[in-house]
Fold this protein.
Amino acid sequence: MPELSRPLPAEDRLVLLPKNPGAFFVFWQFAGGRSDAFRAGAFAPEVELRLVYSEDRTQASSYRADWQAARAYVPVPAQGRVYEAALYAQRAGAWEKLLESNQAAAPSAAGAAEERAYASLEFHKRVSP
Amino acid sequence: MSSRGSLMFLLHAHLPYVNHPRESSFLEENWFFEAVVETYVPLISALERLAAEGIRPGVSVSISPTLGAMLENEALEAKLQDYVESRLDLIGRELERAKDDPALLKSVLLYKKLYEEAAALLHKYSGDLITPLKALQHAGQIEIITTAATHAVLPLLARPEAVRAQLAVAAEDYLDRFNRKPAGFWLPECAYEPRLNSYIKLSGFNYTFTESHAVELAGSAAPNGVYSPYRTSNGLGLFARDAASSREVWSSRFGYPGDPAYREFYRDLGYDGDYEYVRPYLGEDGARRPLGLKYHRITGPHADLAAKQYYDPEAALARVDAHASDFLARRVKQTDDFYAARGVRPLIVSCYDAELFGHWWFEGPAFLEAVIRKIRAERLPLQFVTPTEYLNSCQEPQELSAGISSWGENGYFDPWVNETNDFIYPAVYAATDKMIATANRFRNQDLNSLNTRALNQAARETLLAQSSDWAFLLYIGSHAAYAKGRLEDHAANALKLLGEVIEKRVDEQALLALEQQNSLFPRLDFKVFSSVSKF
């Protein structure tokens, strides 16, 4: 999997981006102190990403990952709705909210997508010698 | 004959900002040179020819601010002139090589004409192709619109400040370039989500375009489907792209560009020619690459590259004529069918990347010119119309809540968010977040000139990091190392400059070098990223 070549500032950040009607892309970063806490075992290594509906803040789904994974694709619970994500970690057996994301809207699926002439791919192939 | 329907052609012209003034030649700058010779010059020539003959083209052209900046960049203009002269030199040698091969000679002569026309048009306008476009718009022949400052996929910018900056910088850039406010806004990659409505409208734009399923998703709320414009609740006009007319032109598999008589893109003298013969025209690294002289035709859908037959320009032009007639016959039927069913004269909105015409589909500019000529010559019941003309003459569009969509593969955001390119977003957001925070911190402070320049350059670098092109190039595996390097450079440049301003230690020489290389948006004010704005 490709990665950045240069380190970024250690900052807290959780970003939720739409990918398609079935999936969000989410990535997270931690400030130095939080990373140190994970490394020191103050937090359990598995984090939980919770999606909530923005309109009423009820939880829609949850997803677990290693804290160092730093990114994930998570299923969209219901198309056409707006979500926010929060990242939790366990400290001494209790879940603690570490990060909150932006709002992101999940698209609704359109029919017969495969029949469309999508513009951005076909003519951007490059020459293969 | 009176019109039974309207056609709206929108050509979206965009290239990522590629400018390496310290390099005498740089591979990725060839994207610009190729697009100028193969697309922009032929299109401008066709539009000027039509206008001179009293045939109003009535098409719309979106010119991205990054492309506009390159078209006005004097260093790139000088390199472009060298590029054209180099190709004409090669063509001179090719004429000698082809003198006993009549089939090859036809194509060489075609390229001689193409490059000579490019040289003549560039000379006529002193290398600045914005001038003829501006004149065509001023004369009412075409309508020019803009797009986001660096072609960011706006639904992937979570911070409102970043969306507003992309829009505000684009509007200002257009005003500076075309001496008027822009009426329309092309959403990069046709990527739409409803939260953009207010930002687009408040940036001064009257209308934008969406992919067809943005409207189709609205179901019965959009009774005319893609065949009429709509308006959002805040009064932004929405035009939806017609899938059928797009497919006929876009698809090399199902559409016109795949015709066996048309020029083959992937067979090029740069790969075919004797190495020592073509070596002077390759880059400094000597690696084989396309030289733009392509002598073969597609030949057949599954024909091996080695089995391609020679291109015949006359045979190709005959197919252009047939395809233009077919395209228009389909549009007449489309409008007749719709009118019969609903009693409403439809509007067909056809949007294409401009670079399809000429660069990828070599015969594309001739096709476009033939379509426009045939409507007039054959008195077809269709008329070309620009978005502003249509909105000024149609009934108040119906209000609609359109759906999230793009014109990318699968219709959403997959090409820009997937396992090949998702690693870039932490860098994009690190630069964007710090730019916003620093703009907020310094927006009301009296800064010296050096710090102001550093913040303004940081804003340029942040905008460039947000460009859709880096993710897309990574996705298709084309120039991926360059795309990754550019993305990381811009993010790192922004973060470094912002840090230097905060720590009061701006490196003026390094800043000057960045200002010279990434020199677009000369009036950019870093405060455009601040959270408190005119909105």
Summary: The domain at 5-72+128-263+311-410 of chain B is CATH 3.20.110.10 (7-stranded beta/alpha barrel). The longest strand of chain B covers residues 5-13. The radius of gyration of chain B is 24 Å. Chain B touches chain A through 74 residues (CB under 8 Å).
